[in-house]
Structure formats: structure tokens, C-alpha cells
Automatic annotation (TrEMBL):
GO MF assignments: oxidoreductase activity, acting on paired donors, with incorporation or reduction of molecular oxygen
A Pfam short name: Bac_luciferase
Lineage, uppermost ranks: Bacteria, Pseudomonadati, Bacteroidota, Flavobacteriia, Flavobacteriales
Domain called Luciferase-like: residue spans: 17-299
Family: To bacterial alkanal monooxygenase alpha and beta chains.
Name of the protein described by the UniProt record: Luciferase-like monooxygenase
GO cellular component: cytosol
Length: 335
């Protein structure tokens, strides 16, 4: 079907469903990663978020270590580490350690946003906004810490030197596209929630790409929301949890992920709100046949090299099943 084989991966936020504990959530992330490995997914990424009861991936590098320990071959990494929250030296040491423990399996995706609200960003790092401005320089520091040349420097991340941990630039705007292209690094766009600039950002990245030691030609990844069930009706029902989560996000009413309900007229009307529609533009919900057509069109439109599926579903079994069905779609499209 498609001219090139498209890789497919998982982005997990360790979403906490109402009535479950954080331990349940972490156990489910492990089970999902194991199922994803079996289904042929390339990587399992975790996103850094803070000050949200519904998101369990705050201590991202620790969770990455747990997932890597409980799997064998799938790549595990950050989608992403929000670099302005951290010292580049500490991140290099953490991911260098992970790279030594799990050789050739760890990815370091780096983002510029705080992954939280402004007040929390200030609590994490008082000079957050200054650090965000120097994002390109902070990435250079990470690259230097991972290089063997840094062995002679006064400040070293000895755990990172020469360790194979590929860097990825994450973005939700065109700024990141210019940066990823200039640095010759792979580029992952957060189109599962930031839909406005996707096409523009991909175009900029391709046009401005400069080959580097790590990448000869552009490599693009895009986040998409995927909810697949046996029927369109069942998928729609399951998706009500996602719609309620997004509506809560937009109205400041954040809480645990709610159980699904039958789609009501009220909820359908709210889901048609322009802000909700904009945020969930690249959401493919339905039976396997329905989603396959939508995914095929998305790949054709974007020409991305890899899809990162974000599947925020209340029930763990439904979530794993959706990811398994998505893997079937991708295998069929790649044949």
C-alpha cells in the first residue's frame, strides 16, 4: 500500500483512571509495553508531565528504567524530557546510566515546554523561562556530555560519554522544526494535541534539514490519537473518556480519567466544540476498517516515517486491544 514501511510506536502518559491506584497504572504501563513489544512496535515513549492527578509519568527517567527492565527488545525513551525543567548534566547522567543498563534501547526525546502550568514550572525551576529560551544551547550541552571528546573537560558526565542514546527533538510549533533541521536530528511532532502547525512544521523541517553525524536525511514522527474496538459504536463509547478528559483540560476541570458512557447529545455537542475539534483533529476512532482508512490518508498527507500512537482509554484491557489492532493495521499497510 504505502511506498515505504512506516514504523509505529507508543506514547504513554501513564494515565490514571478513576478507581485505580498509581501502582495499578505503572503495572498497566509495563503490561502495555510488553504487549507492544510482542506486536512489533518500535518504541515505547513516556511523556514528562507535572501537577496532574491523571498523569503518572512525572519521574520519567525512573519509569523508563522500569519499562526497559520488564521488556527485552523494544526501544524505551522519553517523549519527551522537558529539558528546561532540568540540568543537562543530570539528564546526561540519567540517560547515560539507562543506556549502559539497556544498551541500544534507550531514546532521549527532548522538548521545550514545561509539561505543566506556569506556577508549577516556577516551582520546578525558578529560572524556567530563561532556560526555555536557551533550549538550543541546552541541547548542545547534552550532546557534548555524550561525546567522547568531553573526556578532557573540567565538567563531565562520565556515565554518558560514548554511550549510544539517540536524541530526538520534540515540538508542537514551527520553532522546533527549524531547530531539528539545523541540528540534523530526528523530529517528532505532537500532533495528537497540537494540530495547527503540523504540515507547516514538517515542510520547514524537510526544506531546512542539514545532514549530521547521526542522520543523513530527514526523519519525521507524528503523534496521533488512536482508539480501535470491534465496532465503530464500541470505539465511540470508549472514546467518551478521552472527550471528557479533553473538555476537562480546556475548562480547567482536571481529574482522573472517567469511565466511558454511552455518547449523549450533550457530550456530542461538547465534542463538536471548535477547541475540542482542533485539539483532536488527528484522532482516529472506530473499527479496524474505519481507522485503517483514516491512518492511510494521514500517512499519505504527511509522508511521515513513523506514527506514535496515543491511546488514552479508561480500561487497560481495551487499551491493549486497541494497540494490538493498530499494530495489525500498520502491518497490513506496510505489506
Amino acid at each position: 500500500m504505502s511506498m515505504k514501511k512506516i514504523k509505529y510506536s507508543v506514547l504513554d502518559l501513564a494515565i490514571v483512571s478513576q478507581g485505580t491506584t498509581l501502582k495499578d497504572t505503572f503495572d498497566h504501563s509495563v503490561a502495555l509495553a510488553q504487549a507492544a513489544e510482542e506486536a512489533g512496535y518500535t518504541r515505547f515513549w513516556l511523556a514528562e508531565h507535572h501537577n496532574s492527578v491523571a498523569i503518572g509519568s512525572s519521574a520519567t527517567s525512573i519509569l523508563i528504567g522500569k519499562i526497559a527492565e520488564e521488556t527485552k527488545t523494544i526501544r524505551v525513551g522519553s517523549g519527551g524530557i522537558m529539558l528546561p525543567n532540568h540540568s543537562p548534566l543530570i539528564i546526561a547522567e540519567q540517560f547515560g546510566t539507562l543506556g549502559i543498563l539497556y544498551p541500544n534501547r534507550i531514546d532521549l526525546g527532548l522538548g521545550r515546554a514545561p509539561g505543566t502550568d506556569q506556577l508549577t514550572a516556577q516551582a520546578i525551576r525558578s529560572d524556567f523561562f530563561q532556560a526555555a529560551q536557551s533550549f538550543p544551547l541546552e541541547i548542545e550541552k547534552i550532546q557534548r556530555y555524550f561525546s567522547t571528546e568531553n573526556a578532557n573537560a573540567k565538567v563531565r558526565a562520565t556515565l554518558a560519554e560514548g554511550v549510544e542514546v539517540p536524541l530526538y527533538i520534540l515540538g508542537s510549533s514551527t520553532d522546533s522544526a527549524h531547530l531539528a533541521a539545523k541540528k540534523g536530528l530526528p523530529y517528532a511532532f505532537a500532533s495528537h494535541f497540537a494540530t495547527t502547525h503540523l504540515m507547516n512544521a514538517l515542510q520547514i523541517y524537510h526544506q531546512e534539514f542539514q545532514p549530521s553525524d547521526v542522520l543523513e536525511k530527514p526523519y519525521t514522527m507524528a503523534g496521533v490519537n488512536i482508539i480501535i474496538a470491534d465496532t465503530n459504536e464500541e470505539a465511540e463509547r470508549i472514546s467518551t473518556s478521552l472527550y471528557k478528559m479533553i473538555i476537562g483540560l480546556l475548562t480547567g476541570n482536571r481529574g482522573f480519567m472517567q469511565p466511558p458512557v454511552d455518547m449523549t447529545d450533550d457530550l456530542r455537542e461538547l465534542s463538536q466544540n471548535p477547541s475540542v475539534q482542533q485539539m483532536l483533529k488527528y484522532s482516529f476512532i472506530g473499527s479496524k476498517e474505519t481507522v485503517k482508512r483514516q491512518v492511510q490518508q494521514f500517512i499519505k498527507d504527511t509522508q511521515v516515517d513513523e506514527l506514535i500512537a496515543v491511546t488514552n482509554i479508561y480500561d487497560g484491557h481495551d487499551r491493549i486491544k486497541s494497540y494490538q489492532l493498530f499494530a495489525e493495521i500498520m502491518k497490513e499497510l506496510n505489506d
